[in-house]
Specification:
Response regulator; 5 helices; globular; five-stranded parallel beta sheet; Rossmann fold; 40% helix; 121 residues; alpha/beta
Length: 121
């Protein structure tokens, strides 16, 4: 992955955000952490990153709702969705609304890295 690559990690669980950040740092990827979709959207975090990794279920705006909002943002980076509550219906909703990938938790580190490589090169 390019050394300058950066990713936004949006999850209401701080330990999840930090563990993903630790993993990505070993791959040379910088991370920007957000505790909610509202924080990410209000700070226009999508302008700073090459890729977005967001949880589906969060208080307030859900990951799917955020994905729908981001579809209207010109030049929005690819969005990867993750969840502990994997259902076929949720996966279809995420992919239909423009997610580049749908990952189950706990995340498979190899799968996550491969997905990021696929979307940012």
């Amino acid at each position: 992955m390019p050394g300058s690559a950066s990713i936004a990690i949006i999850d209401d669980d701080q330990s999840v955000r930090e563990s993903i950040q630790d993993l990505l740092e070993t791959e040379g990827v910088r991370s920007h952490l957000y505790a909610s979709a509202e924080d990410f959207l209000s700070q226009e975090g999508y302008r700073e990153v090459d890729c977005i990794l967001a949880d589906v279920r969060m208080p307030g705006i859900s990951g799917i709702e955020m994905l729908v909002l981001l579809k209207g943002v010109e030049g929005c980076p690819p969005v990867l969705m993750m969840t502990s509550y994997t259902t076929a219906q949720m996966k279809v909703a995420a992919l239909r609304n423009g997610a580049s990938a749908f990952l189950g938790k706990p995340l498979d580190s190899g799968e996550l890295i491969a997905c990021i490589r696929n979307v940012i090169g």
